[in-house]
Amino acid sequence: MIIIKVIVCISLFIFTVHLKLLGSQWYNMATILLCSMSTGSTKHSNIILIVLFLDQVRVIAVVLRKETVAYHCLLCCQDQLHISDGVSSVHTDHFDFPYGTADIMCPIPSGCETVSHIAVTSAANKSGGTDRSHTSGCYGQQVKNQKVKSDSFPYNFTVCLSTMFDFTNVLQLVQSLEMLQLLGVNRVVVYKTSCSPETQRILDYYTHKGLVEVIPWSLSKFINVSRGWLPSHGPGDIHYLGQIPALNDCLYRYMYQSKYMALHDIDELILPQSCIMVQYKYFIYCWLELLPQLEKKYGADQCYMFENNVFPITVTLPPPTSQTLPLQNHHWQNVSGVNILAHLYHEPIIPETHYSNFKIIVNPRAVYRATVHGLLKSVKGCAWVDRNIARMYHTRDPRQPKLTPNQLIYDGRLLSYSTHLIPAVNTVLRENGLLPEDSIQ
Ligand SMILES: *[C@@H]1O[C@H](CO)[C@@H](O)[C@H](O)[C@H]1NC(C)=O
Ligand SMILES: *[C@@H]1O[C@H](CO)[C@@H](O)[C@H](O)[C@H]1NC(C)=O
Ligand SMILES: *[C@@H]1O[C@H](CO)[C@@H](O)[C@H](O)[C@H]1NC(C)=O
Ligand SMILES: *[C@@H]1O[C@H](CO)[C@@H](O)[C@H](O)[C@H]1NC(C)=O
């Protein structure tokens, strides 16, 4: 017998979108992230997030791939329960783990004008959800944000960071969050599984400031998550702590809140190679300058792919003699984590990885399915950005550990932000009690 087991609530939002599809016609698309009732009692779980598309609801779920489940979609329309049959399709980026992300398409029955709530159950459960106890009043997830929006979003740039676990890298977190703000980012969404108390303090601080939204990401309570991206890299039933459903959650959660969205990690920064605004005294919004440039060169509504340049944290070298390192706060040594300004040499680009570990900035309203590197499904696909326009600075463990320091290549682009970055980082660290009160600016 096929049963969907416990279905877990992850998100409570609905979004509506205008998507330009094939030709010039505009279609109305609504998106719901939702969860449904429980239909079973074991510890296994399916996470359900939902998207409305035309006359259908798209449920983004985590499913056991080998099971073929017939779904019942329970739609609450004007306080009445309607039922339709859901059809599932698994995202291809499951990396051979037993569980994967899936879309369950639920037709909206005739007679249903507005869906206020929605839930999904296994069709194998005859009574699941349709009995009296459940129909008294609507249940499932509330449908929100049903207004179509194509401009004037509250945020210009949202960065989706997935997933944070056992995180202690406080200094790099603060540096990156300050860098992102200098680039023009207004919102950073952190899918958090676990972190150190100092990290939590920093996240609380930025949440209070309005920059960060923390989404608790506790799939591990329901499913055995892997800490690797392949089954051979770590035991578990789903890829890397459920990073892929998290990215898709972020995509739909912010689709109508943000003009653009960047999908990358906290140790990665996409930096334009020229930026007039970097000269400005107070604010430097280089991504605001970059995106119109990319749209002009590669076309609008694309996803833009940025080349990954690894700056190994095992190598600390001063800049070449012509450059000077700005004065930094020596108290940073006592803050846990990596100092990105100390690692300005990157590994050479090699053909084996050149086109694989990129990250993207995209118009989220032109996307159906996101993945770790790029998109699975979108309206217009992706364009590779010339490294002389912008590239990604990835400060992390070496990818090519056998290189000697003199094989690394200097790139001091980050230093042009340092006169803004250093005092901003000091302020945050000081306000969070991570620097002595009397330390220099
Ligand atoms: C069917 O659904 C009902 C209502 O949610 C639940 O109580 C019951 O345990 C389910 N049965 C099975 C076999 O999953
Ligand atoms: C978004 O960008 C515009 C310029 O394109 C700017 O005027 C506005 O202040 C920015 N909004 C935010 C929230 O930063
Ligand atoms: C998770 O996977 C490990 C390794 O396969 C296994 O030992 C453990 O029992 C699993 N836990 C659950 C809750 O399935
Ligand atoms: C780092 O912390 C230790 C122990 O608290 C302290 O003695 C030392 O002065 C600190 N160093 C800096 C540079 O802040």
Molecular structure report:
With 441 residues, the chain is an alpha+beta fold. It folds into two domains: 6-142, no CATH class; 155-431, Alpha-Beta Complex (Spore Coat Polysaccharide Biosynthesis Protein SpsA, Chain A). The protein has seven helices and 24 strands. Strands 1, 2, 3, 4, 5, 6, 7, 8, 9 and 10 form a ten-stranded mixed β-sheet that branches. Strands 13-12-11-14-19-16-22 form a seven-stranded mixed β-sheet, sandwiched between helices. A hairpin with an 8-residue loop joins strand 7 and strand 8. The chain starts with 5 loop residues before the first strand and ends in a 10-residue tail after the last helix. The relative contact order is 0.13. Bound molecules: 2-acetamido-2-deoxy-beta-D-glucopyranose (4 copies). One 2-acetamido-2-deoxy-beta-D-glucopyranose (NAG) binds at residues 155-156, 186, 288. One of its GO terms (cellular component) is cytoplasm. Its EC number is 2.4.1.-. Pfam families: Glyco_transf_92. This is Glycosyltransferase family 92 protein.
